[in-house]
Give the backbone structure.
Amino acid sequence: MVDLPERTPLLSLHDVSKRFVKPADAIDRIARVFGAKKEDEIVHAVDRVSLDIHRGEVVGLVGESGCGKSTLGRMAVGLHTLSSGTRTWQGEDIDKLPAAQKRTRQLAMQMIFQDPYASLNPRMRVLDIVGEAPVAHRMVAASQQKEFVEELLQRVGLDAALLRRFPHQFSGGQRARIGIARALAVRPELLVCDEAVAALDVSIQAQVLNLFIRLRDELNLTYLFISHDLGVVRHVSDRVVIMYLGRIVESASTEELFAQPNHPYTIGLLASAPTLDVKKIDFHAVSGEMPSPLHPPSGCHFHPRCPHAMPRCRVEQPLLKEIAPRHFSACHLNDD
Ligand code: SF4
């Protein structure tokens, strides 16, 4: 675990939001043809989130499907534009940089996706999948590409002799390693891993998680590790951030979050998962369904499911407050 020093974060998301316009359905389109006034529906996928990630840190980002965690990860690396807010890299506003500098910053942030098979071009050989970008960006000479890819494959635990094979000739775990090698090929400093081991068998998951940890130490990498699985997040993270319906509701060091959760949502998650280190832990045990981000509840988004909800919770949004050193929670119960 890294100590969290008071210094400029490597990546900082400040007050960022992402709103998507929901495409009109057939009925709305017909109604518009006949002159009916139909407002566009807005999905509030991420709602005024601030998150600092320091160099060398592993931040686990957890939440139910649809809570906005993947959207936030894509915003972090620039795959989604921000509807509002800012994104800084070592204090510099990335989105205000000249194009060439911005490209360099983008390369320093790579994303690893859940389904390595879907994200690998089935018609390309591993040599090109891994070696194309570093040559295109002139990080590696074309004459050095093969040697460079061989070295990377070995680093992620693959046999370098397999570089002329296609993705379908590998197992799921091997494909995950190819995806990691491809991300590493442009020498990133930050990896955003979006459910990066979710599609793998549990035994393979452990191997790939250990690879992530080893690579962090060897290459001084920083991770935003997005997962719905508390067991996975606990295994790899220094700090855990819990998201609910587009907002961060709690954030603390991994040790503290699991030992002393504060937010009723986090408490519900952990109470439902007494054997955290055994296997996958998901969110079904928190009673009730997560509301639609098209029509989020007023006040505290969690109030329809919260066993402690008070009248105030229905009208007033709780702000994220520091309740102990580096432990933040957004709940009105902390005001008493
Ligand atoms: Fe529950 Fe109210 Fe706290 Fe929200 S603010 S988590 S509804 S007690």
Q: What stands out?
A: Residues 11-108+188-335 form a domain with the Rossmann fold fold (CATH 3.40.50.300). The pocket of iron/sulfur cluster is lined by residues 263-264, 300, 302-303, 306, 308-310, 313, 318, 331-333 (CB under 6 Å).
